[in-house]
Amino acid sequence: MRLHILQEVDSTNTAAGDRERYSGGDIIVAINQTAGRGQRGNRWNSKPGDNLTFSIVLEPRFLPASCQFLLSETAALAVADTLEEYGVEARIKWTNDVYVKGNKICGMLIENDLKGNVVERSIVGIGLNVNQKQFAEWVPNPVSMAVETGSDYDILQVLERLLSHFEKRYGYLESAIEALAPDTQRDYNAKLFRRDEQHPYNIPGKGPVQGTIRNVLPTGELMVEIDGSLQGFLFKEIEFVI
Ligand code: BTN
Hints:
The protein is of the alpha+beta class. It is built from 5 helices and 14 strands. The mean pLDDT is 97.
């Protein structure tokens, strides 16, 4: 892996999109990300120098497009592995937010380019709150490693640990893709936020329901029990009420 540390950039995901400059194995880290992008067109806000904002460029041609969610699981698990190494117990909120006791510590923006039926290039963008203690009031339920543990951390050391966990998880994904990476599936489901607990959800177009998350399939489908029957939801088809 090749590390590129940029003092300032609009978005590491946007920068990583430059195919002339970056290819599989490049990691673009921003000390100050001025226009961080989140999911659903949201912004990602991070105090300069306090947190990790970076993107990993991958060329996972071994990964069938139908299984691209396994890469999301891999990245979320690498973050959870890292947090656990620092004594922070993490849960993964489908699809790939990482939560600590009901608060969001990490968000990811994964942008895949498909060619034929494989993933030709992927940008795994990760924003992990490390040392930030105060957040803009529009950021919903944020937390950081420092808020959680009372200690500050060297962000590049945290990055080194995270990349080491990612390399392990990604190596496994490649080696076990034929069998649909059963350990990835097992570990992701074991860490699923709100699994087997009843909570309110919103189904766009239908309204509020009470549901119990049971598991996630390798396709990324979230299986939720509602009124005694198991229903599958794809991204954006169901919303958490936090
Ligand atoms: C979300 O939870 O909405 C996803 C947030 C993703 C933020 C990271 S920070 C590094 C990378 N570059 C971006 O512009 N976004 C991702």
